[in-house]
Design a protein that fits this description.
By secondary structure, the protein is mostly beta strands. Helices cover 3% and strands 65% of the residues.
């Protein structure tokens, strides 16, 4: 039993609750499939003494392999690490588009473009250059 007296700090109990829902739509799995996910997390945070901090995340992904040698993927994710205070933790949107060429059964060449946008109002975000951030990736894989 914890007994709090006046002036004694309230400590974090470490409670963490996550509720998530995932929906997959696969009318033709190889040609077109969509995944949607939403999650809400409630967690102890010493900043909030009378309620949980609430985080939210939503993402959507579309995949396609229209031919044996081409794979396409588009994903976008929204993350808000504290829905109550935009100046406390990170909030962002991250999206990417990827195309991959299957050269042989074990060899793949992929090109990917990422767009990362910070949305929160923290000082570190205001000073971030660049915002949004553009990233390019070349992915070469082989297995034997």
């Amino acid at each position: 039993t914890i007994v709090l007296t006046e002036g004694q700090p309230l400590t974090c109990g470490g409670d963490f609750y996550k509720f998530a829902m995932r929906l997959e739509v696969m009318p033709n799995y190889r040609l077109f499939n969509v995944t949607l996910l939403g999650a809400v997390t409630m967690r102890d945070d010493i900043r909030y003494d009378d309620h949980f901090r609430v985080d939210a995340q939503i993402y959507a992904e579309i995949r396609s392999q229209p031919t044996d040698w081409l794979q396409l993927r588009l994903r976008s994710r929204y993350l808000n690490q504290d829905t109550e205070d935009p100046t406390y933790l990170e909030s962002n949107v991250w999206s990417f588009l990827e195309a991959a060429w299957i050269v042989t059964k074990g060899t793949r060449i992929g090109l990917r473009y990422d767009l990362f946008v910070w949305l929160d109002q923290r000082a570190s975000t205001a000073n971030r250059i660049p915002n949004p951030e553009h990233r390019f990736q070349l992915d070469l894989r082989t297995s034997f």
